[in-house]
Design a protein that fits this description.
heterodimer; A: alpha/beta; Glutaredoxin; 5 helices; 7 strands; 37% helix; B: mainly alpha; Helicase, Ruva Protein, domain 3
Chain lengths: 183, 166
């Protein structure tokens, strides 16, 4: 059989492989434009009845920081909450929160109910600071290095998936003083 | 007489339905109305920018078409930028800095989008090249029809002669 007869077959394989790759792509997951850039300049007040708000200065502490954008009305946030509790307890990183467009009394009640893993929480009532962070849905979670540069953005709830494993690996890489995560 | 009237009625109703369907896009757009700027020139610029910007939640809609919360916030931001004296480019850049090129409905022409922009042309060129090849090969095959050998010509002549004699 000559090469010419193989051409249709090769074309077929190329098409099938590219369509297959297309199926694995997730166009809903928009990559962050802020990777390796300093956190945006911001200052958010604390939640009602709390004292620790969140500002850019709190994220340049020399140690690795996690910033989780959450809301009491967001169901996936409830799913990932135990993970955040565990992460805070493990001491692998300081966990901070940006509370996105929430009602003060609702979020206070929610945290009292499920526990509060956050060292600091900034109340983003208007959602404007979250837009500066490039947030387009909750939950989203950022890894910030000691110098205050964003190193990773994780979309959706943290769980037991491979993506979460990659998140934890990145956290450890940054904690060790590395400056690149695979994704 | 009665029959004519009903058919006219039906025709009228049909016309109404068609009109309504035709007007639907206008209705859909009216849902996403928020307070416009006082300056109509600035508002027009903002409206034009809305059409260039992708709603990140719904992805294939512009922020002009979308009712999503985030789309409304982005419209507010664009209006603010325009009022603050930003050029169109500066207002776009403000959002690109936060959301990346994804926020633009028309991807910018750069190295990573080269295939996206020129891929279709490349495919067209490839198809033309393949088509031309097939066309040429076919032409050559027709030319290759060999002329009769001397022996065949004699044979043909005798056959024709036989036919004449018969």
């Amino acid at each position: 059989m000559s090469f010419r007869h193989l051409v249709p077959f090769i074309l077929f394989v190329v098409v099938v492989v590219s369509l297959g790759v297309g199926l694995t792509l997730k166009p809903k997951e928009i990559p962050s434009a802020l990777i390796n850039l300093p956190v945006p300049d911001f200052q958010l007040p604390p939640l009602e009845g709390k004292t620790n708000g969140l500002a850019s200065d709190n994220l340049r502490t020399g140690s690795v920081q996690v910033v989780n954008v959450f809301a009491s009305w967001c169901l996936p946030c409830r799913d990932e909450h135990p993970f955040l509790m565990q992460l805070a307890k493990s001491g692998r990183a300081t966990v901070n929160g940006i509370n996105y467009k929430d009602k003060p009394e609702k979020v206070a009640k929610w945290l009292a109910e499920v526990g509060d893993p956050f060292a600091r929480i900034g109340a983003d009532l208007e959602g404007r600071v979250s837009i500066d962070w490039g947030v387009y849905g909750v939950p989203e979670t950022f890894i910030v290095d000691g110098a205050g540069r964003i190193r990773m953005k994780y979309l959706g709830p943290l769980d037991n998936s491979d993506r979460t494993t990659a998140f934890l690996e990145c956290l450890d890489t940054i904690a060790r003083g590395g400056d690149q995560c695979s994704k | 007489m009665f029959k004519v009237k009903t058919s006219r009625l039906i025709r009228g109703a049909l016309l109404l339905v068609i009109l309504q369907v035709a007007l639907l896009p206008g209705i859909a757009q009216a849902v996403a109305v928020d307070p416009p700027l006082d300056d109509s020139a600035l508002e027009a610029r903002a409206q034009a920018l809305f059409l260039d910007l992708r709603c990140l939640v719904c992805q294939n809609q512009s922020i002009s078409d979308s009712n999503a919360d985030l789309a409304r916030d982005l419209r507010t931001i664009v209006r603010e930028r325009v009022v603050a004296g930003d050029t169109d480019e500066e207002a776009r850049t403000f959002l690109v800095d936060r959301y990346g090129d994804w926020v633009l409905l028309q991807p910018p022409l750069k190295f990573t989008t080269w295939l996206l922009w020129f891929g279709p042309l490349l495919l067209l060129a490839l198809a033309a090249w393949l088509g031309l090849g097939v066309y040429r090969r076919r032409g050559r095959r027709e030319e290759k029809v060999e002329s009769l050998s001397a022996e065949e010509r004699n044979q043909l002549k005798s056959l024709l002669n036989d036919a004449d004699d018969g």
